[in-house]
Amino acid sequence: MLPEGPGALLYDGQMAVFSGIQPTGPMHLGNYLGALKQWVSMQDAESLYCVVDLHGLTVDSDPALRREWSLDAMASLLAAGLDPSVGPVFLQSRVRYHAQLNWLLECVTSFGELGRMTQFKDKSERQASVRVGLFTYPVLMAGDVLLYNTTQVPVGEDQRQHLELTRELAIRFNNRYGETFVVPDAVLPSVGARVMDLQEPTRKMSKSVPSPLGTLYLLDEPAEIERKVMKAVTDTDGEMRYDPSAKPGLANLLEIFAALSEETPTRVAARFARYGELKKELAARLIATLEPIAARYRELRAEEGEIERVIEAGAAAAAAIAGPVYERAARNIGLL
Ligand code: TYM
User: Fold this and answer.
1) What is the pLDDT, as a whole number, of residue 11?
2) Domain locations in the chain?
3) How sure is the predictor about 129, in pLDDT bands with cuts at 50, 70 and 90?
4) Homologous superfamily assigned to 17-190+303-333
5) Is ligand 1 within 6 A of the CB of residue 38?
6) Which of 65, 136, 138, 201 could form a Cys-Cys staple with 196, CB 3.0–4.6 A?
7) Is 207 a catalytic residue?
8) Is 333 exposed, middle or buried (0-12, 13-18, 19+ CB in 10 A)?
9) Active-site residue (options: 37, 207, 228, 279)
């Protein structure tokens, strides 16, 4: 139970996990190894997972396609192994406190600190007209996390800076207006926190930059997975060793293998003499992991009524936690 009122110590020692993913297209291996795999292993009664459709609005799309993507994303989370009977799995827009808390937090965030966000700088450079929502996006994200008294946020490396901002905003709000938010920690996997593009291994695998052979999707057919892995860019010296700066392509494959087999990349390197052998075995392991997910996805996706029920129940359970936290923030900041 969280005590009420300014000055009270909020964190009661219990762990609470929250994380989210944007429904802006099919999920890829980076999403799986950086986020979903951890989400499944950390899921318990105190964890909430969210398809952040409000964040998705920062990307241009047809409304009908957006609805499809939200359902696709929900089905992917369930297919990857999240169990809605263990903890809520829901859509961000169905819990109105996300948008409401966003405004309170925008009013404690400075323009300068948002301008320093590297994801904003990268994404805004690629767009002719930059939406204000893309700029303020990290504040909405901070609110997502803070609404649930979250202690741990399992994410990939690219979200680390956003989590730092979340912590700063929570601390700032608590200092100015009295204890309101629990200050969360990011949890990154030991390997797989930054899966790189298979064709351009110096940049991360990404939903927003199309790379037909470089991005491996969770729903790719086995033959497609094999083709992408066998064609992955490595180097020409043929020397099997884990060296991310000198041999980024090989290092990426070793890391992916290590994340799947719960080993270190160096140990994986010691098991193989040739790149071709490593690739073959890696493709087989990826197919063994992803095929069952794709099969479950196809079953679940056909049951839209069931997905809708999961969203409804998840949103109701999430709102029961988020409501009192939002009310506390509103009261403490001075809203009547
Ligand atoms: P998003 O939707 O871009 O990605 C979802 C998760 O996948 C991870 N990820 C990767 N991990 C390893 N290698 C990669 N190449 C890779 N690409 C993506 C991301 O780190 C993320 O964990 N802002 C977030 C969504 C969000 C959120 C939140 C996350 C909104 N509110 C609250 C946590 C808590 C985003 O755009 O993730």
Assistant:
1) 57
2) 17-190+303-333
3) confident
4) HUPs (3.40.50.620)
5) no
6) 201
7) yes
8) middle
9) 207
